[in-house]
Structure formats: structure tokens, C-alpha cells
Amino acid sequence: MLKQVRALAALAMLVAVTACATSAPRTFEGEFQRPADNSRILVMTPDVQLSVLTAAGLQEPREDWSVSGRDNLTTAVATLIQAQSHTTSSLDPTTAMEGRVGQVIRLHDAVGTSILAINYGFYSVPTRDDDFTWTLGEGVQELATTYNADYALFVTARGSYASAGRVAAMVGLAILGVGVPLGGQQAFASLVDLRTGNVIWFNVVTASPNQDMREIEGAASLAETLMRDAPL
User: Fold this and answer.
1) In DSSP terms, which residues pair with 204 in a beta bridge?
2) Cα–Cα distance for residue pair 22/20, rounded to 1 Å
3) Number of helices and strands (H, E) in the chain?
């Protein structure tokens, strides 16, 4: 239940992000060490949930789309990191939810949701609004030790694609001057220093029409936008 609540909260935050048209990356405002050449980056398997938007406006989960988006983003992100002279390893969070590693992963979920809410959304916390000094704490060293990594990259994506019926409804109602949303997709990424626990970089993007993560080329384009300005 808690996982579901967090997922819904994250989705709500992403929708808020879209409404704000905000996609600017944020970088840790304290001192931090940029990854040196040949750093070891642990790329967490992206958490992707996609659905079809029906003519009635309901979102029906599509597991096949989610799997395609996850696999395509995994490959695209790893390729970009390797092109920056770093080595990558991968970890599927769903296989590591026990023990202290699982605690770190769940903590990142909570911190990521807070960043979306406070730094990109509508929740105002006077002491945090203009401050980007988020950390997971030194407990992240468990990830560094277990998986022989210097940094960890987390990627999450949510979204929906319009069905043929939804598109037809949009065309028909447009004649009457009624607008019909056709869905949209958003993704966010965070880079964590596994020595300090600091979130040294974070970015949120909304996919353009040619960035369909269900397709290899679209996922590559989306990943390039998402990772732009990352301190790698």
C-alpha cells in the first residue's frame, strides 16, 4: 500500500511539473566531487509505468509498453554514461529490496518525491524552496560496497499515450471547440554520490512527440534530453 501511495504521489508531482512547464536541472549547492574519468556508475533499472488513455479519459496500465520503455531507457542511459568515459553496472531495484540496500532504495524514492514537490512543484517550504542540498546520508555506502560503485543513477518515468478512440474523440470535439488532452510522458533522474549520499544532480523532463520511449530511437532522444547538463 505504501508503495502505491508513493507512486501516486510521484505521478501527481509529475503532473504538477508539467503544469509548471518546469524542466530545469538542479545541481547540489554545496561542495561536491564531479565524477572523475572512469568512475563507476551504478545505473538502477528505470522505474517505468505507462498506460493507454482511453476515449473516455481513463488510464489503463500497459505492461508491455512499460517493459519496452524500461528496457529502451536502460540501454540509452548506459550508452550515454559510457560515452563519458565511465563504467556502468546495473541493478534492478525490485531484486534488492531486502536489508539495508532496500532501505536506501526506499529512502531515495521518498527524497525524490520530496524534491519534485518542493523544488519543482507547488509545495512551499521556506527553508527549502531555493535550496538544493538533498542527501540520503552516509548509509548509501552500503550500495557502494555491495555493488562496487562510486555513484548511483536513478530514473523514473510515468505517462500515457492516447488510444485511437481518444484521438478520434479529440478530432471530433475540436470541431465544437472542445479541447481533449492526448496524454503525456514525464521522466526524472537523480545522480547520488555513494560516498556522501548527496544528490548531486537532478532533472525532470517532459517528452516531446518524437521521444516515444517505447521505441529505441525515441528512448535515446528522451535519455539525451534527460541527461543533458548532468555532471558526468
Assistant:
1) 188
2) 5
3) 6, 8
